[in-house]
Amino acid sequence: MITLKDLAATLGVSVSTVSKALKDSPEISKDTITRVKEIAKELNYRPNTLALSLKNRKTKTIGVIIPDILNTFFARILYGIEQESTALGYNIITCLSNETFEKENNSLHLLANGSVDGFIMSVSEETQSKGEVKHLKETINQDVPIVMFDRVANDVDCDKVIIDDFNAAFKATETLIKEGRKKIVLVNSLGELSVGKLRVLGYKKALEKHDSYTADPIVIEVDDDQELLNDQLEKIITEHKDMDGLLCIDNISGVMSVNIAQRLGRTIPNDLSVIGFSSNKISHLSYPPLSTVAQYAEEIGQESVKMLVERLENKTKGNTKTVTINYSIELRGTTLPVS
Amino acid sequence: MITLKDLAATLGVSVSTVSKALKDSPEISKDTITRVKEIAKELNYRPNTLALSLKNRKTKTIGVIIPDILNTFFARILYGIEQESTALGYNIITCLSNETFEKENNSLHLLANGSVDGFIMSVSEETQSKGEVKHLKETINQDVPIVMFDRVANDVDCDKVIIDDFNAAFKATETLIKEGRKKIVLVNSLGELSVGKLRVLGYKKALEKHDSYTADPIVIEVDDDQELLNDQLEKIITEHKDMDGLLCIDNISGVMSVNIAQRLGRTIPNDLSVIGFSSNKISHLSYPPLSTVAQYAEEIGQESVKMLVERLENKTKGNTKTVTINYSIELRGTTLPVS
DNA sequence: CTGAAAGCGCTAACAA
DNA sequence: TTGTTAGCGCTTTCAG
């Protein structure tokens, strides 16, 4: 690694002269500036970020904690985070909590000591179900800001970026009701997650609101595991012969259901209308392609970065905000065409 | 942020005493050690990693450059990288090149100045098609080692972790031939990527090798885009009425093909046998579930970390290795059952 | 047993 | 216009 000292030595000037010359300081003569820059280029000098960070007490680095990178939704958010960070001149250190409290806690401690200027994170499933928040509050108290996205801890006061899961499910359910569906089932593989609960509530609320809909809500808990899920969905579709609407609130059960239902002889969307929460990519793995609640995952990532950087660079204290990112209902082929 | 200085001040001792006490130095009295540790815990002291890195001239951080995080294969590799890094006490800084040379190059420059001890990366599509290697060689010459995985630059001398794509495709094709298939088509959406080319070669080689197989190889280039792909696959399946074997060398065209073929009235696997290169997760999105060439993506990530850390900690110079990670053919429902 | 001092690479106030 | 110095947080000789 080539340092200022090296440049100074080869030129026979002092380190500070070199430092200033490289930043076009008016203190330094044109001549030296060009000489310094030349040799810097020649020796391929790169300032040591570490030293800079230590000096400036900021790292231009964001710690990102993702619960599950194999989940497309989170992968897309990471994509958005990376894009926006790069655009704003920040690097990201990515940690995966794998849905455990322990890893989440470790990452926070490991990085909240000057390694990063702030965090962007979604809390792990374990953290959420246990209701742990101490580690989060501690970090914030140490003046390392956190922006939470998607899965947020309600009793932690920090910036948040969420989706209006309640309304998304509400609207999706309404779409089915307006098609005249009489038995709409909700399939839930999200377990204890807050987003899952919100979606279930939205579904129930929609059913309640519409007098034309008379059946009781049917919420079926299924597994997260693909193979189990396949069987469970098949069972649901077989047993509920009169089911004519299906709301799948995770990424994959929608397409799976469509494929299974067709195999079992149901005609989609005529017999059965299906709406999922799948990503665009997944939704084309069935035919007809799955109608979905589209979540602007990339935007969630981008917005999170914006909020964090805003706080970091303007030293905003307090006044935390919660931003709700839009969703949209994308009707493709598994719902009736709208005229 | 609380520093050694702070601890020293509150205890009325010197910084160096505190530093030594925290590492249980025999120079320091038992008494002071306990007092120091107590206060350190109380004030929640965390050593500043930046300062340590600057001092030690190593960061215990690995730069990871991923071409496309939305690609499940890469997401799984990242998962493996993160797991193993954590296990070995390293952090990762993740950069996404989005398949561009520019971002890849930037990331390399940005971090190869002391921010990371080494890199783990897969070269971007653009880098590969342009045959750019200068930035890679430069980094290595600056004594920042690189481990490349999956998509590697052949003319760069560094550690590599690859899959035997040629043989994987060869074996998959053989599986179809041994089922007695007479017209096996290969669908390629991988464009110019080296892995794609290798898979095509493996396919061709297998066809050649078996005298029982008499048809010419049929390689059909398709798009990467989901919607286009859907139409293109439909067209292929419609036009090649006598196709009885299909090898899909990317992550999704396999499941798509199965779903489309069934909709078009083909019986799978009797009429048509399909093998894909999909991840386990995706392969269950068709019914029957897709038979695949399973790639141990997590293992690729883990192995890459092991190789890099080995080089970093043992200061291995030269003697670069290439490790080939296993694949396995996982026969599920889209190929004939083996007796 | 404890502390002072130098140094990792860099910047910036101050001197020359 | 250039150089000296101190300091970011830490470790590590070397003195006390």
From TrEMBL, chains A, B:
SMART domains, sorted: HTH_LACI
What SUPFAM superfamilies does this protein's entry cite?
lambda repressor-like DNA-binding domains, Periplasmic binding protein-like I
Q: Where is the HTH lacI-type domain?
A: 2-56
List, alphabetically, the Pfam families matched: LacI, Peripla_BP_1
Q: Which UniProt keywords apply?
A: DNA-binding, Transcription, Transcription regulation
Task: Say if the entry is tagged with keyword Zinc.
Answer: no
Record protein name field: LacI family transcriptional regulator
Give the species: Nonlabens dokdonensis
Phylogenetic classification of the source organism: Bacteria, Pseudomonadati, Bacteroidota, Flavobacteriia, Flavobacteriales
